[in-house]
TrEMBL record:
<dbReference type="InterPro" id="IPR036097">
    <property type="entry name" value="HisK_dim/P_sf"/>
</dbReference>
<dbReference type="InterPro" id="IPR036890">
    <property type="entry name" value="HATPase_C_sf"/>
</dbReference>
<dbReference type="InterPro" id="IPR003660">
    <property type="entry name" value="HAMP_dom"/>
</dbReference>
<keyword id="KW-0547">Nucleotide-binding</keyword>
<keyword id="KW-0597">Phosphoprotein</keyword>
<dbReference type="GO" id="GO:0005524">
    <property type="term" value="F:ATP binding"/>
</dbReference>
<keyword id="KW-0808">Transferase</keyword>
<dbReference type="InterPro" id="IPR005467">
    <property type="entry name" value="His_kinase_dom"/>
</dbReference>
<keyword id="KW-0067">ATP-binding</keyword>
<dbReference type="Pfam" id="PF02518">
    <property type="entry name" value="HATPase_c"/>
</dbReference>
<keyword id="KW-1133">Transmembrane helix</keyword>
<dbReference type="GO" id="GO:0000155">
    <property type="term" value="F:phosphorelay sensor kinase activity"/>
</dbReference>
<keyword id="KW-0472">Membrane</keyword>
<protein>
    <recommendedName>
        <fullName>histidine kinase</fullName>
        <ecNumber>2.7.13.3</ecNumber>
    </recommendedName>
</protein>
<feature type="domain" description="HAMP">
    <location>
        <begin position="141"/>
        <end position="196"/>
    </location>
</feature>
<dbReference type="GO" id="GO:0005886">
    <property type="term" value="C:plasma membrane"/>
</dbReference>
<dbReference type="InterPro" id="IPR003594">
    <property type="entry name" value="HATPase_dom"/>
</dbReference>
């Protein structure tokens, strides 16, 4: 455009502004255009003119161009076909006029634009590739490798939990990866402790199983000897016999309970609608509540049914009722009779069986310990397996059991059974 404007200025110095056809062709060729026109003071004048065009050229007015044309015009130039002519109107830069108008072929513009697009694609491709490489290296360094390290530690821990090499040392990062490393380290430590404890219990169970036969023979011999001693008329022997019998009973019960807890593999529960009130009455009878002078208050509607295995539900209730009975029996200085109340609360997706007693109760911090095998007996000499067995059985149903303070001041065992139903 500027070359065409300069070519038009060169015609001003010619005599009478006239130029030969040879000079006109040279000026047009040098400017790379076909026609040059100037409009000044409202008068449009054709300065240089080339061959007549077969069709009207494509108009581009640089004085008033819409922003969208800056996007569409390059594509029209690149894909508009060969041999197209462009008519361009622009404001002059080197002379006073309204506008300068040229008609030129778009071949050079298309070639220059193609070269520019090619270089732009190369530059953009290089920058994109470099950025992609940096992103890949960053992700690999800060995310993939730490996750591979965590995964490798988990695989080694699964293969051999006792292997010290499977321990994952946290890197100290403060992001989510660092938190995952810390939590994995804690989980591995907790699992090692739990696995070691389970291994010790398994070894204990195996040892008890091996000596079970001999232990029973020895206890049987001791019981036979105690029966013979009971026939002796010596007052001192008669005074010592009750303590000996209680000691033997405790030894037999401890061995039996230990074997039952260590060797029993519970079958899958055969859950079906079971009348809860009747199950409570039978459990209370087996727990010998009335024989021990306790009062059992069954406040459950006879129409209530729960979805449970009758045999396993019976064992759960018996263990819970025995635990409540033993707690009441161990309380000294009682002035009122022991009472155990059974109730049922229906919830939208479950049912709560509550067994509340008026015994001495248990501090909140010590309640969870009652569910630990061999650690939570409520009476001296007990094995402490009743609540542990009850919790293991209820877990088979996806339920829970917990202890809380009862309104009378004692302890209340709450048994949550999912899918509890109530008959019409």
């Amino acid at each position: 455009m500027r070359a065409a404007e300069l070519a038009s200025l060169s015609t001003e110095v010619a005599p009478d502004r006239g130029v030969t056809k040879q000079l006109s062709d040279q000026l047009l060729t040098g400017a790379g255009v076909e026609t040059i026109a100037i409009q000044a003071d409202g008068l449009r004048r054709l300065v240089l003119q080339g061959p007549k065009l077969a069709q009207a050229p494509y108009l581009v007015d640089l004085r008033d161009q819409a922003p969208v044309s800056w996007i569409t015009a390059p594509f029209q130039t690149l894909f508009g076909g060969d041999g197209r002519m462009v008519r361009v109107i622009a404001e002059p830069r080197f002379r006073k006029a309204d506008f300068v108008e040229i008609v030129a072929p778009d071949a050079e513009l298309k070639r220059a634009l193609s070269d520019y697009v090619g270089r732009l694609i190369l530059v953009v491709g290089f920058v994109a590739g470099l950025a992609g490489l940096l992103v890949y290296l960053s992700l690999n360094l800060f995310l993939v490798r730490p996750m591979q390290r965590i995964t490798f530690a988990m695989e080694r821990f699964r293969a051999d939990p006792d292997d010290p090499a499977s321990h994952l040392e946290p890197s100290g990062r403060r992001d989510e990866i660092g938190r995952a490393e810390v939590e994995l380290d804690r989980m591995q430590a907790d699992l090692r402790v739990a696995l070691n404890a389970r291994a010790r219990l398994a070894a204990l169970g195996e040892a008890v199983a091996k000596i079970n036969h001999d232990l029973r023979n020895m206890l049987t011999s001791a019981q036979i000897a105690s029966e013979r001693l009971a026939a002796v008329k010596d007052p001192q022997v008669a005074q010592a016999m009750p303590r000996l019998e209680r000691a033997l009973d405790r030894a037999v019960k401890l061995a039996t309970d230990g074997l039952a807890y260590g060797k029993t593999q519970e079958p899958a529960p055969d859950a079906r609608p079971t009348p809860l009130s009747n199950a409570l009455e039978m459990a209370a009878e087996e727990a010998r509540l009335l024989d021990k002078g306790l009062r059992f208050s069954n406040e459950v509607d006879p129409a209530v049914q729960v979805q449970a295995d009758p045999d396993q539900l019976h064992r759960i209730l018996v263990n819970l009722l025995k635990n409540a009975r033993e707690a009441i029996e161990q309380q000294t200085g009682r002035t009122e009779p022991g009472v155990i109340r059974a109730s049922f609360v229906q919830e939208p997706a479950s049912g709560l069986i509550r067994l509340a007693d008026n015994g001495p109760g248990v501090p909140e911090r010590a309640r969870e310990r009652l569910f630990q095998p061999f650690a939570g007996s409520s009476r001296p000499g007990g094995a402490g397996l009743g609540l542990a067995i009850a919790r293991d059985l209820i877990t088979l149903y996806g339920g829970r059991v917990w202890l809380e303070r009862s309104p009378p001041g004692g302890l209340r065992a709450v048994l949550m059974l999912p899918c509890a139903v109530k008959a019409a």
